[in-house]
Amino acid sequence: MQDKIECLLRKSKIIESEGSSILGGCNEGRLPRHRFLYREPEVAPVLSVYTAGIGYWGDNVFRYRRDSNTFALELVIEGEFLFADNGVHYAAPPGCLFIVHLHHDIEMMCTTTRARKRTIILNGQLLEAIVTSLRLNDCAFIKLSDPDEIEAKFMTIEKLLLTGDSASLRQADAAAYELLLHLVKEISSAPIPEKMLLLMEMIDNNLNQMLTVEDLARNLHVSKATIYRMFRDHCHCTPLAYMTNKRMTMAEWMLRHSERSIKEIAAALGYKNQLYFSTSFKKYHQLSPKNFRRRLTAKK
Fold first, then answer.
1. Which one is the CATH code of 194-299: 2.40.50.140, 1.10.10.60, 2.60.120.10, 3.30.2310.20?
2. Tens digits of residue pLDDT in 70-120
3. Structural domain boundaries of the chain?
4. Most buried among 44, 84, 280, 291, using CB within 10 Å?
5. Do domains 2-188 and 194-299 have the same CATH topology?
6. How do residues 65-79 score in pLDDT, each as one tens digit?
7. Over residues 236-243, mean pLDDT
8. How high is the pLDDT of residue 15?
9. Domain 2-188 has what CATH class?
10. Beta bridge partners of 98
């Protein structure tokens, strides 16, 4: 599947760009087709619904975002999607919801002949603070316990947006916040086992070392097969994909917020070879670390 994504990336065209944020992709015939409701652009003081509606996709339809300038909730209602958040892949059949986070690198494609998903895009001056305070910023994928209930909430917001008067729009914003709270409960209702938490902590605290699956298994006194199963069940990815994603996320943060050289960043993340680090970074962000930092400087 990764080969197909890379093929679609090569075929993709840039749809729009704003500073360091890029939206691109490729279509298949008349797909994707969207029935979206848009709100008049405004500077929302807290949180507001900007867009809501339904999208119709098909096989080989593909979209990607680099340094996403959009926060969106995507609910799969028919068919199946493959969704990637900063390089971690999730298969999303009906009843699953994935989150497009601000400043993340996102890829999504349809893996069935036809598929549908409902979308809500949020904005607001406090959006990032709200997402962080609710601890949704580390969550990209949710298998819903009651998809019909969540779809009903999406449809309620769509109807309020369609009505369009100021009272209805305020209700839509309140309903969107309630939806975020509901998603927090969904995440909290599925606790992560203690051994998985220990694994994640071990990786997070040792990003300067290239840990292997053997290292993880030895430290936790379990088999390698158990390590692979735990990551598959709780992170929907391989241990290597998880560790690489963590390194690439930290690399992006360092490039944004520190003056460390690329060589120093590579060393801090366990890469003995700066070229290998740059190759890995470009695979995830479609830009070399040097060009990524240059684009950030140009944006300022």
1. 1.10.10.60
2. 999 999 999 999 998 988 888 899 999 999 999 999 999 998 999 999 999
3. 2-188, 194-299
4. 84
5. no
6. 999 999 999 999 999
7. 83
8. 92
9. mainly beta
10. 74, 141
The predicted-structure confidence for 24-51, as pLDDT tens digits, reads as follows 999 999 999 999 999 876 656 678 999 9
Interstrand relation of 114-123 and 71-78 (parallel, antiparallel or unpaired): antiparallel
Which tokens is 102 given?
């601000």
Residues 6+ apart with CB under 8 A from 150: 75, 97, 144, 179, 182
